[in-house]
Amino acid sequence: MEPLPFETPADTVQRVASKLRCHPTDERVALRLDEEDKLRHFREYFYIPKMQDLPPIDLSLVNKDEDAIYFSGNSLGLQPKTVKTYLEEELQKWAKMGGYGHNIGKRPWITADEVITGLMTDIVGANEKEIVLMNGLTVNLHLLLLSFFKPTPKRHKILLEAKAFPSDHYAIESQLQLHRLSIDKSMRIIEPREGEETLRTEDILEVIEKEGDSIAVILFSGLHFYTGQFFNIPAITKAGQAKGCLVGFDLAHAVGNVELHLHDWGVDFACWCSYKYLNSGAGGIAGVFVHEKHTHTIKPALVGWFGHELSTRFKMDNNLQLIPGAHGFRISNPPIFLVCPLQASLEIFNKATMKALRRKSILLTGYLEYMIKHYYGKDKAETKKPVVNIITPSNIEDRGCQLTLSFSVPITYVFQELEKRGVVCDKREPNGIRVAPVPLYNSFHEVYKFINLFNAALDASKEKSSSV
User: Which residues carry the post-translational modification N6-(pyridoxal phosphate)lysine, per the record (predicted)?
Assistant: First the structure.
């Protein structure tokens, strides 16, 4: 499966087809890619939803006993099979020994978050002292901004991308209001060029160069939730810091999806959720990164008992001994029943490695892109088929596994018809359907099956729209 040096996913698909003496869209190509996939066994580590269990399914259109086509890991990852075991271990411990569980077992409740922090280091590219697992994403973002955003009359802006995820947008607005700053004057939003869906890196860097002296914090998504664009984190970080800005990222859609090297890139701070690509379950415990260069210079604005050094925490003398760096940002004890699912998933990542997952992801999403363009590219308009436009950047370095699609037929019809056929993806306003084949548990043959169901859904959508 591994591409030859400098081989694009399209080249790989065509090379495999040539060896098999078939067309690149033939099912045999997908089956061969799966045969050669060294990560294919990780699918067995997860529960895959069945067609019959999906609420919108039309059982007359599918085989109820087959696996659904689950391409929604960018919204909620699937459940690792060991989650139930780990939860039951802690429930049993609680039942049998009550409060003694705080100090005993595989996951002592007082240090449960620290027990699994080491499993995050490869995923975000940081050392353990720079990572802390706590709270939810937006809570963590607020805590970070309270410490990193220190506006002055000259340097008072926060720079972000257009159409950032609403929680980020609201968090920035409220932080500005907290400092009694004007949202119009201090919230600097970069828009794509007219007629374009995604931002050009050179345009971001130009704004930083021109306006950097007035920008206190740059806060971008690592990967944009709607377009699927993977921003150039090292370039933005370098440019921002050269102008005296602090640079942070919301990595909700990047963590577990693309390779990250937060320490080496010099990112000042970052935060992420864990229920998308990290498969920790809805509302799972989130994460924070604070670069070690800030260990003794930036402290939490709000502190709690769990930011106190463990060695003296139970003296209860109310003399704060703050843990330096990221771990000092902890406020409360770790929620053990949220730690368990994340541990189950991170152990799988540790076995697979981000480098190998990213390599597979490039080919898996590239295969999906190849198939969509073959059947529904703009050059196919004369065939009277619906046109499918891929909003997500075509350059593999500028995207993760998600492709966002827009259509020449009503998006609502397309989405409904996909749901009826057991395809799990999601619809996002104003006009996008997000499709994300995840390398941990999705296969090349699923992409092939998706395309067949996609064809049927588009045909049905075209009929609906023409009859209205």
Answer: 276
pLDDT digits over 408-428, tens only?
888 999 999 999 999 999 999
Q: Which CATH class is domain 84-351?
A: alpha beta
296: Cβ contacts below 8 Å, ≥ 6 apart: 324
Determine whether the annotation assigns residue 349 to a binding site. Answer: no
Q: Is 333 annotated as a binding residue?
A: yes
pTM: 0.95
- 250 annotated as belonging to a binding site for a ligand: yes
Instruction: Tell me whether residue 365 is annotated as binding.
Output: no
Give the whole-angstrom CA distance, residue 99 versus residue 244: 48
221 among the known binding-site residues? yes
What is the model's pLDDT at position 348? 98
Q: Which residues contact 75 (CB under 8 A, 6 or more apart)?
A: 276, 426, 434, 436
Binding site annotation covers 275? yes
Flag whether pLDDT at 2 surpasses 50.
no
pLDDT of residue 168: 96
Structure tokens at 149: 């955003």
* 269-310 residue pLDDT tens: 999 999 999 999 999 999 999 999 999 999 999 999 999 999
213 is in an annotated binding site: no
109 is in an annotated binding site: no
Is 374 marked within a binding site?
no
305 is in an annotated binding site: yes
Residue 165 counted as an annotated binding residue: yes
Identify the weakest region by mean pLDDT among 16-25, 301-310, 357-366, 369-378: 369-378
Q: Return d(Cα 247, Cα 266) in angstroms, integer.
A: 9
- 311 labeled part of a ligand binding site: no
